[in-house]
Amino acid sequence: MRLAIATCAALPEGDEDTPALVAELAALGHRAEAVRWDGPARWDDYDLVLVRSTWDYSTRLAEFLAWADSVPRLENRAEVLRWNTDKRYLRDLGAAGVPVVPTLWDPVELPEWPDYVIKPAVSAGARDTARWSAEEAAPAAEHLARLRAEGQTVMVQPYLDAVDTAGETALIFFDGEFSHAVRKAPILTAGAGVQPMIADEKDAREQITPRAPSKAELALAAQILAAAPKDLLYARIDLIPGPDGSPVLLELELTEPSLFLHHAPTATPHLAQALTRRT
Ligand SMILES: Nc1ncnc2c1ncn2[C@@H]1O[C@H](COP(=O)(O)OP(=O)(O)O)[C@@H](O)[C@H]1O
Ligand SMILES: [Mg+2]
After folding, report:
1. CB neighbours (10 Å) of residue 186?
2. What is 222-245 written as a DSSP string?
3. Which of 56, 116, 127, 250 to mutate to test the pocket of ligand 1 (most atoms within 8 A of CB)?
4. What pTM did the predictor assign?
5. Across residues 178-192, what is the average pLDDT?
6. CA–CA separation, 270 vs 84, rounded Å?
7. Average pLDDT, the chain
8. Which end of the chain is less crowded, N or C, counting CB atoms within 10 A of the terminal residue's CB?
9. Protein residues whose CB sits closer than 6 Å to any atom of ligand 1
């Protein structure tokens, strides 16, 4: 099988997990290479195109989705990417009974909360995402107004401060089977405002360590996958403890999540096997 691992111009060799994945696939008899999604590649030359470090998609969403539609064999598939690249999918999951981070959608005014987050519905790597306190009404209002003026769907959420101690848990699944989990340290600092971002530094602020998920986190992840599109090659489920301590969904990443493969020895073989089953 010939595979393309779709990446972006800033990361021509793919992300940090790509070399080990290419080697694992080679051992199974498959030829894989990193290919930029917006380059001149002939996508029908590949038996399968795996969406990975296409991290510049969030500022070029229409172009990215048109590309996804044009690729004959894409994982995850184009229709999943269309649903998942806009965080309004959280409303669908919330309506299906999944506990999601409480969210005000497109509010005109700032909330009364002491500590809250403003972010656009189309984003990755905490782009245009900031944490604000009640004392920061002026810059917060400017942030809200700017995102609205750009035509973004704006999300406003209470800052879930359990993330400062427990961190965020990311659970990674291949073909619906749990593979591994990691802890992500908190990213948003009080008083920092909106941080500038560079396309190839999506995860520069992320501090990752391996973590064994709790029973409650695994149970919630199963509930989320049951409510999500079916037949996903990969899924990453990001959970934070909510106000009562039980986990809530921050993000279901089906597009181009870092999979943190090198944090678990079984992860790369697991993904390579799942890819092999798709041929
Ligand atoms: N409501 C929230 N409470 C606490 N931290 C948050 C909240 N929303 C976002 N964050 C922080 O910002 C980061 C990025 O936000 P997220 O919703 O995951 O968007 P994306 O990763 O797609 O940019 C999270 O990893 C988390 O550290
Ligand atoms: Mg995230």
Report:
1. 19
2. HHHHHHSPSS-SEEEEEEEE-TTS
3. 250
4. 0.97
5. 96
6. 23
7. 96
8. C
9. 101, 117, 119, 123-127, 129, 157, 159-160, 163, 168, 184, 186-188, 238, 250-251
- The answer to whether 249 and 220 have CB atoms below 8 angstroms apart is yes
195-231: pLDDT as tens digits: 987 555 555 678 999 999 999 999 999 999 999 999 9
At residue 201, the pLDDT reads 58
Provide the 10 A C-beta neighbour count for residue 114: 12
Cα distances from 136 to residues 116, 180, 193, 257, in angstroms, run 11, 39, 9, 31
Atom of ligand 1 nearest to the CA of 126: 23
d(CA 70, CA 73): 9
CB-CB contact of 168 with 186 (8 Å): yes
Q: What domains sit in the chain, N to C, each tagged with a CATH number?
A: 2-84 (3.40.50.20)
The C-alpha torsion from 103 through 108 and 111 to 116, rounded to 10°, is 60
98 alpha carbon to ligand 1 midpoint, in Å? 18
The count of other CB atoms within 10 Å of the CB of residue 269 is: 16
Which ligand is closest in space to the CA of residue 163?
1
Between the CA of 79 and the centroid of ligand 2 the distance, in Å, is: 21
Peptide bond into 84 cis (omega under 30): no
What's the CA gap between 168 and 87, in Å, rounded?
18
Q: How many whole angstroms from 126 Cα to the centroid of ligand 1?
A: 6
Distance of alpha carbon 33 from alpha carbon 255, whole angstroms: 19
Tokens of 146: 């700017």
Distance between Cα 30 and ligand 2 center (Å): 31
